[in-house]
């Protein structure tokens, strides 16, 4: 009960097309427990492994139940898969919490599939979008590679007002991803988003992708986010090289957790400086934390629409978004959040 983070292995790999149905997590744990901890005060527990059920659905059910129980008890589940379709099971755990979910996927693809297609690591997002209850408020992809995604899929991301950031954008400036993670509930990391020369994955060769440093920075952003309540690492090939990288990704997530600042939505707005930027038709209201210098922008509550928001809410943003607004440039994520709120 005093634990803050719980590590769960899931020996379910049937959704990772063309790979073994089961995986080995011993090397990851061995590599992780050989690392020195930081100055960590929180208790971390290892709950062992969930073995694959007779069907993938059996595994999903057990994982969903375990994750829901942990989140209800304010414990962050860190899931080591397994194939990335396990993200769907974690997402379904939030049904019991009766809240909308913001999903961030660190991935080189969007993982859309045909509606009738069996749930798999490359198609789980479609099931999240079409299946009731629909609790997915937003999906953000960090690190997609254009040649792995059809133009129809890229257009669909725009049509649904989802967010997507190309690999090159994030590699050039990883700080633009920080507000994205700050607004996430669930973070799903596909290890094939890391290039093989850094991941050690030569079973499925990836010439391009994040390097080791970049993926650890993103993992730390996920950990430091006050809102992230579950984290998963998926689609590895049980190699020794990958084991050390997964261990370090885990380490950086936990390190980030220990620097959480309990800001919005947990803190009081009195601790923020308020900035109003007048535009032609409206005004944008920004907040800057006096404690961490991080920025938010207000999304107004629209009474005339069937609203997904219950009140005015704050969307994480960057200082550059504020500067852009002073030059009459509306932040894209704010615009998308507004449109999504009207649907």
Query: Would you identify the regions where 5 or more consecutive residues have pLDDT less than 50?
Result: none
Terminal-residue CA separation: 40 Å
The quaternary organization reads as: single chain
Report the top-level CATH class of the largest domain.
Answer: Alpha Beta
Helix count from the secondary structure assignment: 12
Helix content: 25-40%
- As laid out across the biggest beta sheet, the strand order is 2-1-3-8-7-4-5-6
CATH architectural group of the largest domain: 3-Layer(aba) Sandwich
Global shape: globular
Number of strands: 12
How many domains would you count in the coordinates?
Answer: 2
Most strands sheet: 8 strands, parallel
Classify the beta-strand content into a percent band: 15-25%
State the order of secondary-structure elements, H for helix, E for strand: EHEHEHEHEHEHHEHHEHEEEEHH
Describe this structure in words.
The strands form two sheets. This protein has an eight-stranded parallel beta sheet, sandwiched between helices. It has a four-stranded antiparallel beta sheet with strand order 9-10-11-12. The mean pLDDT is 91. The termini are far apart. Helices cover 33% and strands 22% of the residues. With 343 residues, it is an alpha/beta fold. The relative contact order is 0.12. Helix 2 packs across helix 3 and helix 3 runs parallel beside helix 4. The longest helix has 18 residues. The protein folds into two domains: 255 residues, Ureohydrolase domain (Arginase, Chain A), CATH 3.40.800.10; 74 residues, no CATH class.
